[in-house]
């Protein structure tokens, strides 16, 4: 059994894997098997208890339960660390001809440790008694949980900054029977829904505004709707089915506006859909924090956005009741709004507090209201309650992945894949599966707990950011569970209790000096599993040899010029699985990294390393390898048969790279840059790609367009993996689109960039039938080869972003129903592009007018026609017009790739 196959997120899972590993590898006595089985049962109980506790807010737990949870959590961590260490040692003996005495020693050590663990577990059980069931954990007085901390304010003063959203939502509701407002807690979803309801309810025969919240009782929801509609209930205590029938009968001939506020789960959503099914005159507004609930159900979605700086300031001014220019307010407002991040509930709460005091007292009020997550009271604790409900509703495994975000600095861009690999390396994802980790990331996105963002430096990389208020919540939750410790940015090491073990350590900007005094360690790092350091000098880091159980080491843009010897200690960290050295300037890769036989992830992007030495091919468990511009691999990449993800610049300089690639059968993500491309090399590359049947993402970048054109036909005959989701070929000039780009061959394809010499109508029609295509860049390389195409109904049904050049694209009725941004290069002057009334979700449109051979008057008239068409469009999309003479058609703009990656 491979090491990566036995990684588990739970104690019982680790124990189960360990038992199987020991029994399969060695013959152990029955007594030891029984002891291992008993310990496994106890650890299952501990896991279940911690999972139950994690779903209940601390203020709803009894004091004894909190104490027990803290003790069990620390014991769980200690046990998990040592079990993982045992597994690593046993794994290292597989295939080795060890003396029998060595195996006996390990067995004896394990036997002693199992007995020691049992004593500790039994001690905790004896102190507290049997583990309580989940229903007994919660205080009986707190069973009804409501996310509505404050009554909805219907006054116009509460609509500051929402005027545009109110108008847009009203417009959407006029075209759709069901609009769902999606966004993070505290963003003003309820306020917006209430404002639109109040504005429109006079146009309907009846209406109701119902808030559900967590633990929705369907019969009670129906009763609330009856009350809102002023309906009389017939029968003695009618059941849910009877109430539904009465409601549907009442609404059969009425126009009705219903708001269902704060839906948390799919079951409740399905109930709402069922109740109002067949009611032709009804309009529904729903609000939710979970985007996944509304996926694929055919409703119109409105996503809440943070308030702009100007609107934020105006809302704060309104709530603080500042009626004229006030120097004290102007000075303080920037400090307040920086902490609020455009979230209305935070701005409102601070403004109300300021309104209760004179302006000369405001700075004192601000200092006392508690935006510090470590304070026990103040504004932050109220906001924390609103936002933390999303955390307690998460599945148990995802909770720990969410808390991992506490390690990163404020407003930090976090790359998606490398975040997931960190989770995998530390054992937070079942079975070490990247695909499962990816579903966790998507779940956090869907629940609006993180926001999708593209790298500010590299458009090929997508990731996320965490809202400043949500990060404070994460840090607070993480601190309460002793999940992580963050030093720097004002938090000094003296604030860290030396009696509590550190499990994950982050050091930001080197403000906290961590190290060793002459007689004692300032911080005990022996139990640390993850070390993250950002922009720190080498003097801020402790000696790496002290991190005996370290699994993840991520030193991002740290200055190690005076401490290169510290990296030479890496070879001692036997259980290290993740090494990130992004942005660290170094001449060469430390040789002792070659000793890390369990290493799975190595990222040396932007390091200045010119060569990945041959010893890298000895890291046979590598699953992810990233090297940036200027770094070439000297060893044979085909030796790394466990690789799932490879980012390699100057890949053509690696020994026989194109042929070696076919040996990497586990490959899912391949991003390569080719300096030189000849016809023979391109043929080998295509043959190898054909054999990668798990490939999901393929990006090939080349600067040698003319040479790449020679082998363009080779791409036509090789059919790739049916799992392919992204295909970006930049600098590879194809004669025409490959025939295998078809919904029957690559049904999951969502992002596509092609540069072709010729394009025909049937090629575009085939692309229009791709069921998952969300962003498309289609570039005809030759100016003279122009195509006129009218997109028809049922084509490009899910496409959100489209960029085409040398294609006169006309939007027919019903085409591009989900397009949000459209860029068309090469539209002839005078062409009716079909902008009026079509593309209902269009937000931005850009046309590059082909002005060749046209008079200035003709060009001006054409621009005016496009402006009128844009203004007549129901969405009034932002229009950009550029005059184009066909000269700048040789390459795809960098900005296009950024926009494509912004589409989820």
Automatic annotation (TrEMBL):
Residues 528-879 form the Disease resistance R13L4/SHOC-2-like LRR domain. Pfam families: LRR_14, NB-ARC, Rx_N, WHD_DRP. Residues 165-322 form the NB-ARC domain. Residues 12-94 form the Disease resistance N-terminal domain. Keywords: Coiled coil, Leucine-rich repeat, Nucleotide-binding, Plant defense, Repeat. Gene3D superfamilies: 1.20.5.4130, Helical domain of apoptotic protease-activating factors (1.10.8.430), P-loop containing nucleotide triphosphate hydrolases (3.40.50.300), Ribonuclease Inhibitor (3.80.10.10), Winged helix-like DNA-binding domain superfamily/Winged helix DNA-binding domain (1.10.10.10). One of its GO terms (molecular function) is ADP binding. One of its GO terms (biological process) is defense response to other organism. Residues 407-471 form the Disease resistance protein winged helix domain. Belongs to the disease resistance NB-LRR family. This is Uncharacterized protein.
């Amino acid at each position: 059994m491979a090491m990566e196959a036995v990684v588990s997120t739970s104690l019982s899972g680790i124990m189960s894997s360990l038992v199987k590993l020991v029994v399969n590898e060695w013959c152990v006595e029955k007594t030891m098997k029984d002891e291992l089985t008993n310990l496994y049962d106890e650890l299952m109980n501990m896991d279940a208890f911690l999972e139950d506790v994690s779903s209940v807010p601390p203020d709803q737990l009894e004091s004894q339960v909190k104490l027990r949870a803290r003790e069990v959590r620390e014991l769980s961590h200690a046990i998990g660390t040592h079990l993982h260490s045992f597994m690593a040692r046993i794994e290292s003996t597989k295939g080795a001809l060890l003396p029998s005495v060595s195996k006996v020693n390990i067995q004896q050590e394990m036997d002693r440790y199992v007995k020691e663990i049992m004593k500790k577990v039994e001690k905790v059980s004896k102190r507290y008694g049997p583990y309580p069931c989940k229903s007994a954990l919660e205080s009986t007085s707190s069973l009804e949980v409501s996310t509505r901390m404050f009554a909805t304010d219907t006054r116009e003063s509460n609509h500051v900054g929402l005027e545009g959203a109110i108008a847009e939502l009203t417009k959407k509701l006029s075209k759709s029977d069901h609009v769902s407002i999606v966004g993070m807690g505290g963003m003003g979803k309820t306020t917006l829904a209430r404002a639109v309801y109040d504005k429109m309810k006079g146009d309907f025969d009846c209406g109701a505004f119902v808030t559900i919240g967590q633990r929705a009782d369907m019969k009670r929801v129906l009763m609330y709707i009856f009350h809102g509609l002023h309906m009389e209930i017939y029968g003695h205590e009618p059941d849910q089915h009877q109430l539904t029938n009465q409601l549907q009968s009442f609404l059969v001939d009425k126009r009705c506006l219903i708001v269902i506020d704060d839906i948390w789960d799919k079951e409740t959503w399905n109930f709402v859909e069922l109740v109002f099914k067949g009611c032709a005159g009804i309009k529904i507004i729903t609000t939710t924090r979970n985007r996944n609930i509304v996926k694929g159900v055919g409703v119109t979605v409105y996503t809440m956005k943070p308030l702009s700086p100007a609107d934020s300031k105006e809302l704060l001014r309104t709530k603080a009741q500042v009626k004229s220019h006030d120097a004290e307010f102007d000075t303080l407002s920037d400090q307040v709004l920086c902490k609020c991040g455009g979230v209305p509930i935070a701005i409102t709460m601070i403004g109300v507090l300021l309104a209760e005091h004179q302006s000369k007292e405001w700075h004192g009020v601000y200092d006392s209201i508690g935006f510090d997550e470590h304070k026990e009271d103040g504004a932050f604790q109220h906001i924390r309650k609103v936002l933390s409900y999303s955390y307690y509703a998460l599945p148990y495994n995802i909770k720990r992945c969410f808390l991992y975000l506490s390690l990163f600095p404020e407003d930090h861009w976090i790359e998606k894949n490398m975040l997931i690999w960190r989770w995998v390396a530390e054992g937070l994802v079942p079975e070490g599966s990247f695909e499962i980790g990816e579903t966790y990331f998507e779940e956090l996105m869907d629940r609006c707990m993180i926001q999708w963002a593209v790298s500010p430096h590299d458009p090929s990389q997508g990731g996320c950011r965490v809202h400043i208020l949500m990060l404070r919540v994460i840090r607070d939750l993480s601190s309460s569970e002793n999940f992580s410790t963050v030093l720097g940015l004002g938090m000094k090491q003296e604030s860290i209790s030396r009696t509590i073990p550190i499990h994950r350590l982050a050091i930001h900007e080197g403000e906290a000096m961590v190290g060793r005094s002459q007689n004692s360690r300032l911080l005990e790092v022996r139990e640390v599993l993850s070390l993250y350091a950002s922009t720190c000098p080498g003097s801020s880091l402790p000696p790496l040899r002290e991190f005996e159980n370290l699994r993840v080491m991520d030193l991002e843009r740290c200055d190690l010029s005076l401490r290169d010897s510290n990296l030479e200690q890496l070879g001692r960290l036997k259980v290290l699985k993740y090494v990130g050295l992004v942005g660290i300037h170094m001449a060469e890769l430390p040789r002792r990294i070659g000793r890390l036989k369990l290493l799975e992830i190595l990222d040396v992007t932007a390091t200045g390393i010119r060569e990945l030495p041959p010893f890298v091919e000895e890291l046979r468990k590598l699953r992810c390898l990233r090297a940036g511009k200027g770094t070439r691999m000297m060893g044979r990449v085909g030796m790394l048969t466990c690789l799932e993800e490879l980012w390699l610049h100057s890949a053509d300089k690696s020994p026989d790279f194109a042929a070696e690639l076919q040996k990497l059968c586990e490959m899912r993500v391949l991003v390569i840059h080719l300096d030189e491309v000849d016809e023979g090399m391109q043929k080998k590359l295509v043959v190898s790609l054909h054999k990668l049947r798990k490939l999901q993402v393929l990006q090939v970048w080349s600067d040698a367009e003319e040479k790449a054109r020679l082998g363009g036909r080779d791409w036509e005959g090789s059919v790739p993996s049916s799992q392919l989701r992204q295909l970006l070929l930049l600098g590879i000039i194809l004669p025409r689109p490959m025939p295998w780009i078809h919904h029957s061959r690559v049904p999951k394809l969502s992002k596509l960039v092609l540069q072709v010499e010729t394009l025909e109508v049937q090629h575009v029609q085939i692309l229009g039938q791709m069921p998952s295509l969300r962003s498309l860049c289609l570039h005809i390389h030759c100016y003279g080869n122009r195509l006129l195409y009218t997109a028809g109904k049922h084509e490009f049904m899910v496409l959100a972003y489209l960029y085409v050049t040398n294609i006169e694209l006309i939007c027919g009725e019903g085409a591009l129903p989900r397009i949000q941004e459209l860029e068309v290069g090469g539209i002839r002057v005078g062409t009716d592009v079909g902008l009026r009334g079509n593309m209902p979700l269009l937000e931005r449109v850009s046309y590059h007018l082909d002005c060749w051979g046209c008079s200035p008057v003709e060009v001006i008239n054409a621009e005016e026609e496009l402006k009128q068409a844009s203004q007549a469009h129901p969405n009034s999309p932002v229009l950009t017009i550029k005059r184009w003479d066909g000269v700048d058609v040789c390459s795809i703009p960098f900005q296009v790739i950024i926009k494509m990656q912004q589409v989820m």
